[in-house]
Design goal:
This protein is an alpha/beta fold. It has eleven helices and ten strands. The chain has a single domain, classed as P-loop containing nucleotide triphosphate hydrolases (Rossmann fold), CATH 3.40.50.300. It has a six-stranded mixed beta sheet, with helices on both faces. Strands 2-1-4-5 form a four-stranded antiparallel beta sheet, covered by helices on one side. Helix 8 links the parallel strand 7 and strand 8. The radius of gyration is 18 Å and the shape is globular. It starts with 6 loop residues before the first strand and ends in a 17-residue tail after the last helix.
Length: 261
């Protein structure tokens, strides 16, 4: 394993032509191996843009994003994206692929032997709590929302990438299913020791899952802190954010151990 951070932003700005301000500006931070960084903030603050700069769906206008110590501009984009697990809201499964075919996608593109692929699919389904005999041959429309998200996580993990990016993965689920998947994801994180970057609007979710929380405001990093530091911050904007979302009395005992522990 390489030394140094898994991901690093060095003076990163991303702008689009004719926009009144950069989408993100002057981002300088590093993500340690094995930690879960959760990015929060109001809509339009640059959370998803930051995520897309990591897997080279976007390139910086200025500055450098490094993954495994190498600038994203120096990576082959296909190889970079295959080495990163990516989960979005509603899982983003291919509707005409079975569950097995969705999970096997990257291993098959990487030319794994078929027997190894079949074993990996079974292993990943078991990991996310789905019976392979019942679910492998189903299509996404035959699954519940929670089951689709589990398959999305299984697909992201199938090729054993060191880095996972998740963009509002549980945002469309009902509260009970969301809470269940949050607990399961926290447990997976501790077991697998992956580096995770997780975008959410839900500050309670961030407090439960994060090693550190990054609060963004107008494209800039307003605060970067552990969950307990975040709850005690004196930053005025962060205090207002906490008060608006009614989490000032959050029970710290509910916080999962961080993925870096």
């Amino acid at each position: 394993m390489r030394s140094g951070p898994a991901v690093e932003f060095r003076g990163v700005t991303f702008s689009v032509e004719h926009a009144p301000r950069p989408i993100v500006a002057d981002l300088d931070f590093a993500i340690a191996r094995g930690e879960t960084l959760v990015i929060v903030g109001e809509s339009g603050c640059g959370k998803t843009t930051t995520l897309k700069l990591i897997n080279r769906l976007l390139l910086p206008t200025r500055g450098t994003v490094l993954v495994e110590g190498r600038a994203t501009t120096a990576w082959d984009p296909v190889r970079l994206r295959r080495s990163i697990g990516y989960v979005i809201q509603e899982a983003g499964l291919f509707p005409h692929f079975t569950v097995e075919e969705n999970i096997a996608l990257v291993p098959r593109l990487d030319a794994w032997p078929e027997e190894r692929i079949r074993h990996r699919v079974r292993e990943m389904l078991q990991l996310v709590g789905l019976d392979s005999e019942r679910f492998a041959a189903r299509f996404p429309h035959e699954l519940s929302g929670g089951q689709r998200q589990r398959v999305g996580v299984a697909r992201a993990l199938a090729a054993d990438p060191p880095l996972l990016l998740l963009d509002e993965p549980f945002g469309a689920l009902d509260p009970l299913t969301r809470a269940e998947l949050q607990r399961e994801f926290a447990a997976l994180c501790r077991r697998l020791h992956k580096t995770v970057v997780f975008v959410t609007h839900d500050l309670r979710e961030a407090l439960l899952l994060a090693s550190r929380i990054a609060l963004m405001r107008d494209g800039r990093m307003q605060l970067l802190a552990t969950p307990r530091e975040f709850l005690r911050t004196t930053d005025e904007y962060a205090r207002a954010y906490l008060a608006t979302l009614r989490v000032e009395g959050f029970d710290e005992d509910r916080m999962a151990p961080s993925c870096a522990e």
